[in-house]
Amino acid sequence: MLRSLSDGNFIIKLKEGEETILGRNLLTRVRDMRCSRKHVSVKLNNKFGICELTHTGRFKGKVCGKPVHNGESRWLFHGDTVELLTGKHIFQFQRLNPVIAEQAYLKNLEYGSWQQYDSVLIYNLQSVPGNSMIAAFDLFGSIVHGTSGNTYQRDMNAWTISYDEVIPTLKKHVEEGYKIVIFTNQSGFSKKQLLIDDFKKKIVAINRFLCVPFQCFAATANDWYQKPRPGMWELFCRMGNAGVEVDKDKSFFVGTAAGRIEEGNVLADYSSTDRLFALNCGLKFWSSAQHYYGHPDPDYQVSIFRPRTVFNRNMQHLMFPMDTPLPVADKPEIIVLCGFPAAGKTFYAKRHLEPLGVKIISWEDDNLTLEQCLSLVEETLRNDRAVVVDATNPNEDSRKPFIDLANDFNCPIRCFLFEATQEQALHNYIYRKIKNPECSRPHSLIDFHKKILVRPSVEEGFHSIVYFTFVPEFDDPADETMYKYYMIGK
Fold first, then answer.
1. Alpha-carbon Rg for the chain in angstroms
2. CA gap 234, 280 in Å, rounded
3. Taking the domains of the chain in order of start, what are their residue ranges?
4. Per-residue confidence (pLDDT) for residue 192, from 0 to 100
5. Choosing a second label site near 461 at 20 to 30 A (CA), which of 150, 158, 296, 383?
6. Taking Cα atoms as reference points, which of 480, 489, 370 lies closest to residue 435?
7. How far is CA 359 from CA 139, 369, 370, 420, in A?
8. What's the pLDDT tens digit per position in 354-408?
9. 2-97 and 112-293 in the same fold
10. What are phi and psi of 16, to 5 degrees?
């Protein structure tokens, strides 16, 4: 019920699930012309012991002393006050027994529903409507943390609250009109380290402990939905917020993986995933210590590779020396490509060399043996044509067979070195994997390449080394937009 605190001691009874209109009408006994006839609507949810309020009037009111404007929604808990106009026409939401109300909330957590969209698990509560103001959190580290010491917490009870201020802070956000949404990476499912049913039970147990309504999105695979990629946030905005547009200026994300560097007794963060997720989504970011205790943000380091910066490079300077002639199809020559997996070698060869009539042999991608590759190169040279060996060719041993073959045919051999960094190569790999999930080569090949890499030199027998700076090219603007997001958090 709603009890009047300013216009006489009377009550307004609320019925489960029915909309009650408060405003300039007989029900509220308000005659103030600044108060609309339909100033506020309220709807009781007995299952959770709360009331949903939506402000529809022209002039602002207040809920628990905080302003509420036209179109905004708030949750009312037992004892919360509503001012139809600032300082006027005050009502208090009351349950006959607040203890029973909390018990009802806990009992009816079973009404929370789970659904799966692609690789994302989504937890919804009936008492969490759409909202323009989103208080988003990472789960482990920002709200709870594990107690078993394992990376993947199998025991649904192996967790505890991360900070003493978590519960009061979350409840304060709800009172201020925020919707609480959790975004968490749970790659343990795909690695068979976690069971989905155990995770679901854990989320319900956490909700039971917090006694704060929230929505949860869990990315279960290393795909577009995994942080720091913005897929989960896009999914939430598209289908998880009841059609309400998010006000990013009034929303924020809190996470523990903030990229903070080691300083004094403070250990470095294991990654910058959460900070980059907020950056990708266009949200303000706070570390957990900042948000709960107001600590200053220490020095931090985000991804070494910044994908937007590659588009600022001068296209005239992508090849050095800049006056390097490209191979001519009918002049025998071997071009050996060298660089990380996903450094852009195949892309460049297909787009810029193959149209010249040059033979491209991608023997690693085509699962050929070295002997088969050498046979194809030899055949091409016998036909008086130029050939490109498209492979990583990371060290002298891998490049020597082609140098020897060039000497046998007395033809020139050059090395085209693609200087994408390890971080950029990993970014490219993940982008390629998202665009083509059938891509089967593991990204661990990038780490392996780093270990065995020996930069090529003319002393090996090359006539020259040509250096390439990778700049992606796109036919579809949507693909370019996707590429510009941060893909890796470490």
1. 30
2. 10
3. 2-97, 112-293, 312-483
4. 58
5. 383
6. 480
7. 52, 18, 17, 24
8. 999 999 999 877 788 999 999 999 999 999 999 999 999 999 999 999 999 999 9
9. no
10. -55, 120
CATH architecture of structural domain 112-293? 3-Layer(aba) Sandwich (3.40)
CATH superfamily to which 312-483 belongs: P-loop containing nucleotide triphosphate hydrolases (3.40.50.300)
Q: Mean pLDDT for each 10-residue chunk of the chain (490 residues)? A: 83 88 91 92 80 91 88 84 91 72 56 87 85 95 77 63 91 90 86 73 85 92 94 96 94 92 76 94 94 84 81 67 92 96 92 95 85 95 96 94 96 95 91 83 81 94 94 89 90
pLDDT at position 338 is: 96
Tokens of 200: 């679901």
Full DSSP string of 229-257: STHHHHHHHHHSSTTPPP-GGG-EEEES-
Task: Determine the residue type at 160.
Answer: T
Task: List, in sequence order, the alpha helices (H) in 343-438.
Answer: 345-348, 370-382, 396-409, 422-435
At 1, the amino acid letter reads M
Half-sphere exposure of 472 (CA within 13 A, CB side): 23
Three-state DSSP string of 43-80:
EEECCCCEEEEEECCCCCEEECCEEECCCCEEEECCCC
* Tokens coding 431: 């982008």
From the list 324, 381, 392, the residue with the least C-alpha distance to 358 is 381
Report the predicted TM-score, pTM, of the whole model to 2 decimal places: 0.75
What is the C-alpha end-to-end distance of the chain, expressed in Å? 52
Query: Domain 2-97 is of which CATH architecture?
Result: Sandwich (2.60)
Q: Which helix (H) or strand (E) holds 338?
A: strand 333-338
